[in-house]
Amino acid sequence: MKARVIETGEIVDVKRLYPTVYSRLDKNNKISEEYYDDEIELIDKPKKVSINKVCEWLIENMHDYFNGDSEFAVTNDFITCDEFIENFIKAMEE
């Protein structure tokens, strides 16, 4: 993602490799510089959506992904739509 370094005004590409630090990588994907939240301003912040909104979309669009028996293929096993939603919610909450 793009960020502006507050001290210099430079626009850099950063990745969040650690919970509290943004890292600038060189051409070999080695960390060349690290910035804390208060040292940069993110330009293109990742978009966050609510779990409820995602689940509403899935419910409205599931017919595109499930067969007529309301089962979804996962590694050659089938799960029901309700199980799929429950698994999705659990994964998002982790």
Sequence-ordered SSE layout with sheet pairings:
Blueprint (H helix, E strand, L loop, with lengths): L1 E4 L5 E3 L1 E4 L2 E5 L5 E6 L3 E3 L8 H11 L9 E4 L2 E4 H13 L1
Antiparallel strand pairs: 1-2, 1-6, 3-4, 4-5, 7-8
Helix pairs in contact: 1-2
Descriptive tags:
2 helices; 94 residues; alpha+beta; 3-stranded antiparallel beta sheet; 2 domains
Tell me what the structure shows.
The chain has 94 residues and is α+β, with helices and mostly antiparallel strands. It has 2 domains: 2-42; 51-93, no CATH class. It has helices at residues 51-61, 81-93, and strands spanning 2-5, 11-13, 15-18, 21-25, 31-36, 40-42, 71-74, 77-80. The longest helix has 13 residues, at 81-93. The chain is elongated, with a radius of gyration of 20 Å.
* Strand order of the biggest β-sheet: 2-1-6
SS-based class: alpha+beta
Radius of gyration: 20 Å
Helical content class? 25-40%
Short description:
With 94 residues, the chain is an alpha+beta fold. It has two helices and eight strands, in the order E-E-E-E-E-E-H-E-E-H. A hairpin with a 5-residue loop joins strand 4 (21-25) and strand 5 (31-36).
